[in-house]
Here is the input.
Amino acid sequence: MLEMTHEIRGDVLILRPAKRIDSSTAKSFEEQANALVDAGPAKVVIDFSAVDYISSAGLRVVLTTAKRAKSAGGALTLSGVSSNVKEVFDVSGFATIFGMHDTDEQAIAALKS
Amino acid sequence: MLRDIGSNAAPGAMVAQTSCSGAVFLSDKIEMALRNDISEVGRVLDAIEAFGEAHGLSPKAIFRLNLALDELITNIVSYAFEGHSECHIELTVELRDGVIEALLIDNGKPFNPVDAELPELGEGLDERRIGGLGIKLVRTHMDRLDYSREGGFNRLQMHMNLNAVG
Here is the structure.
């Protein structure tokens, strides 16, 4: 199981996964994220400030969650990505697709603009 | 088990202590026999974190080693043993003179991650694909990878110089 909490702030869903998104926890991350995005809202921030590890299985879930949000008329962006995790996003080219923000507030502002 | 497939990595007494489900912590070495199950990735990462902390590895070095092993073991569990039940997967990780040397052995389908061609990853959200990304991450973070196919086993040797990681 991946530990994850969430918050709905106005019309934005903030997902807060924690610790390690590896191949053995990615499925749990995907199931929880899918259920929350389907329940709405479809504007989504994934707050990575409590995540200290991600593998390509985790990146795949970020990608599928972004596509799900987009098809529901929303969008997805990231906040609080720490340096090791950021390196994985950079190598994969994901950093430019999703946008990275220091804080949830900045991420929310980017979704509204 | 390692001796049967021609490894010169481990004296017999050390091998004898390794069970199918357990990690053995010797001074500078981890040896694990892995089941063909994705949950094993979590067990390996836990063991690497404990090993890394015990030996003063930096968080960045632990992260990179975990990432490489996660991606490679995930590939083996996902693709190497389709329709095939006698699965042997073994991992050895050693710290020697500031260098991490890891050896991953499996008797699945031949797969050379060193030379495998990586598909284009695509650019926008809709075109973006994940296949091949794991191998790209492994190649980015390990200083050297050596692959061989010996006696029905894939053998992948990884080297990571801790001084270069910071």
In short: Residues 1-21 of chain B have pLDDT under 50 and may be disordered. The beta strands of chain B are 24-25, 29-34, 89-96, 99-106, 144-150, 153-161.
